Amino acid sequence: MFSSKSILSTVVLAASAFAAIVPSCSTAKALMKLPPGQTALTAQTGAPSFALLGVGVQNYTCSDAGTYTSAGAVAALFDISCLGGKPAFDSIAKTAYTIWKNIPDGPLSSRLQSGITTSCGVATSGAHFFTKTAAGSIAPVWDMRANGPNKVKGKTGAYVMGAKVANLTSPEGTKNVDWLQLKNVEGSLATAIYRTDTQGGPAPASCTPGSAPISVKYTSKYFLYGSTVA
To answer: What is the pTM of this model?
Structure first.
C-alpha cells in the first residue's frame, strides 16, 4: 500500500471534518461525455461507479531550464451523481471554478468546501492527492476512506492509485489542463479513472530558476469505473 504520511494525514483530517453522510444517487444519468471524433481516450460503456467534481490546485516546481514541472495536485472531491440528467451537471466544473477563483483559502479549507456544497448542491466525497511511490516517483490517488458514500466510507479498499494511460488537450484549449485517462495501480475504488471538463490549472510558460513552487487553481470532473469495494 502507498504511504505518504504527511500528505495522507492532512487529507484525512480535512476530509474527516466534513465526514457527514454523503447523499449519493444512481449514476445512470451521470455519464461521461467525450468530444466527438476524439480517439485519444477510450470511451466507456455504461454508468460510472462514481461521478465526482474535483476542486483544487495543480502544483508545479521551477526547473533549472526555466520551465515548470508538475509536482502533483491536491483537490477536494464532491459527489455530483444527484445532478445527473440536469443542466447543472454539464456546467458544474465551470460553476465551481468561478466560485473557487474568488475564495482565497486552500483546496481543503472549510470555506471552499462550504462554498461549493452550498452553491452547487453537492456533498464532499473524499480527496484527491499525490503520493510517493516505492520507485520514488509520485502517483495520483482518489481516496474515500475517510469521507464518501456509505457503501465505501470506512472501508480499507476505498481508494485508487492511478497511472496515466492517455491524455487529450482540453476542447477549450491550453488554458485548461488536459483531460486524462488513467488505470488502476492499487486500491479497489476503480479500475479506470477519467479527468474531463477541466477548467484552469496549467502553469505559466516559463519561470526563473530557483523560484518558489506555485499552485494553480483548477476544477474538473472525475469519473471512476469498475469499483470493487466490498
So the answer is: 0.91
134 class by beta-carbon count within 10 Å (0-12 exposed, 13-18 middle, 19+ buried): exposed
Q: Please write the tens of the pLDDT for every residue from 126-164.
A: 999 999 999 999 999 999 999 999 899 999 999 999 999
Cell numbers linked to 177: 489542463
Side-chain-side CA neighbours of 197 within 13 Å: the count stands at 22
Cβ atoms of 7 and 146 within 8 Å: the answer is no
d(CA 49, CA 34): 17
Contact status, residue 23 vs residue 123, Cβ threshold 8 Å: yes
For residue 23, count CB atoms less than 10 angstroms from its CB and return exposed for 0-12, middle for 13-18, buried for 19 or more.
Answer: middle
CA distance 124 to 219: 14
Instruction: Quote the CA–CA distance of 19 and 108 in Å, as a whole number.
Output: 13
